TrEMBL record:
<comment type="similarity">
    <text>Belongs to the Rho GDI family.</text>
</comment>
<dbReference type="GO" id="GO:0007266">
    <property type="term" value="P:Rho protein signal transduction"/>
</dbReference>
<dbReference type="GO" id="GO:0005094">
    <property type="term" value="F:Rho GDP-dissociation inhibitor activity"/>
</dbReference>
<dbReference type="InterPro" id="IPR000406">
    <property type="entry name" value="Rho_GDI"/>
</dbReference>
<protein>
    <submittedName>
        <fullName>Uncharacterized protein</fullName>
    </submittedName>
</protein>
<keyword id="KW-0343">GTPase activation</keyword>
<dbReference type="InterPro" id="IPR014756">
    <property type="entry name" value="Ig_E-set"/>
</dbReference>
<dbReference type="GO" id="GO:0016020">
    <property type="term" value="C:membrane"/>
</dbReference>
<dbReference type="Pfam" id="PF02115">
    <property type="entry name" value="Rho_GDI"/>
</dbReference>
<keyword id="KW-0963">Cytoplasm</keyword>
<dbReference type="InterPro" id="IPR024792">
    <property type="entry name" value="RhoGDI_dom_sf"/>
</dbReference>
<dbReference type="GO" id="GO:0005829">
    <property type="term" value="C:cytosol"/>
</dbReference>
<dbReference type="GO" id="GO:0005096">
    <property type="term" value="F:GTPase activator activity"/>
</dbReference>
Length: 157
């Protein structure tokens, strides 16, 4: 069922209607697509560190960058900031998953719930909690990370 039909059916349920109105805000119901599934598109990823300009990484069309994407000094404190756009319907349960490998060994894994978002023409931004890069002689070297932003039905591009 699309968002327009859903709003029509929920007009008799006052609490659900208020919840949807709070999420949707000033969304023009005529501009909402007829698609059942919400669409979330990640536009960019920024790495924020104190004392230097933000590193803004545009997301490639296929979502898979090749080669060295960025370098951080050991022991650096940083935050990730995602810019994304939601269209077609409300997306609930948006979550972030990050896995880090050094050579073929998994060294870290993190998951965090980002939230629920309504469709709107302006992009959203979400800043992750601060993290610290590994440090010390044994931590030096190249790392590979796989970051995923997804919801429970897997419709993030």
């Amino acid at each position: 069922m699309n968002l327009s039909k859903n709003m029509q059916q929920l007009k008799d349920d006052e609490s659900l209607r208020r919840w949807k109105e709070q999420l949707l805000g000033s969304v023009d119901m005529n501009s909402v697509g007829e698609t059942l599934e919400p669409e979330v598109k990640i536009l960019s990823l920024a790495i924020k560190t104190a004392g230097r300009p933000d590193i803004v990484l545009p997301i490639p069309g296929n979502g898979n960058p090749n080669g060295l994407w960025f370098t951080l000094k050991e022991g650096s404190r940083y935050r990730l900031m995602f810019t994304f756009q939601v269209s077609n319907n409300i997306v609930s349960g948006l979550k972030y998953t990050n896995t880090v490998w050094k050579t073929a060994i998994k060294v870290d894994s993190a998951k965090e719930m980002i939230g629920t978002f309504s469709p709107q023409p302006e992009p959203y931004t979400h800043e992750m909690p601060e993290e610290t890069t590994p440090s010390g002689i044994f931590a030096r070297g190249a790392y590979t990370e796989r970051t995923k932003v997804d919801n429970y039905i897997g419709n993030v591009k």
